[in-house]
Amino acid sequence: MVDWSDERIAALSDQDLRNLRVNAERKSAGDLLAKCDAELEKRNAAKPRKAAKPRTELKEFEHAISGELAEVGKRMAAKYDLSEETARAKSAGIKGFRSHKLLDAQGYAKLGGHQRDGTVAVDRYISYRRGNDIVTLGVWLPKDSPIESHEFHVSAPATMIEGGKAFSEVRPGVSEKDLQETRLMRNFKDLPSAEAAFDAALAKITA
User: Fold this and answer.
1) 165 SS3 class
2) Rounded Cα gap, residues 158 and 181, in angstroms
3) What are 57-99's pLDDT values in tens digits?
4) Which of 135, 205, 192 is nearest to 164 (CA)?
5) Burial of 174 by CB count in 10 Å (0-12 exposed, 13-18 middle, 19+ buried)?
6) How big is the CA angle at 75 (ends 163 and 106), to the nearest 5 degrees?
């Protein structure tokens, strides 16, 4: 019978240590099993942890701007009743109605479908729906474009947005998956101007 001292166990290779643990478990050798677990835990703790990969400049931009859009959403939620409960109550009788969560599960702007399918580099947005009407505010960056060329897009029903254009005018060459005949869009280079347009549209949709 081998006397498995702590020193002897520590001298084993990782594979031999794992084999010894399996044998100890099979033989119900509780003391030896505990020693093996302690040594394995010690070795795992000593292993250098893989550092998280640093974000690319594009991902840093996306993360930061998603946070800024979320802050706009929080300001609007404090100003208007954008709760899902109210949206559902005010949309009774609308077939297939689904309320929009203003932000994603992490509290940032939601990931848009065009970024999800790789059509564009960045498509992040916040939105509110009541009845068949939808109001959105998002950031848009085409593929292979410099970050500074990004735009902020506000969309809303035609009666809720001044100076709105067809989606195809604001996003040329990008096909929309859903019909957008009842909604128009405006593009802005700065977030405060886009926020003001989004605010004005929310005032109408919640009136």
Assistant:
1) strand
2) 9
3) 999 999 999 999 999 999 999 999 999 999 999 999 998 899 9
4) 135
5) middle
6) 105
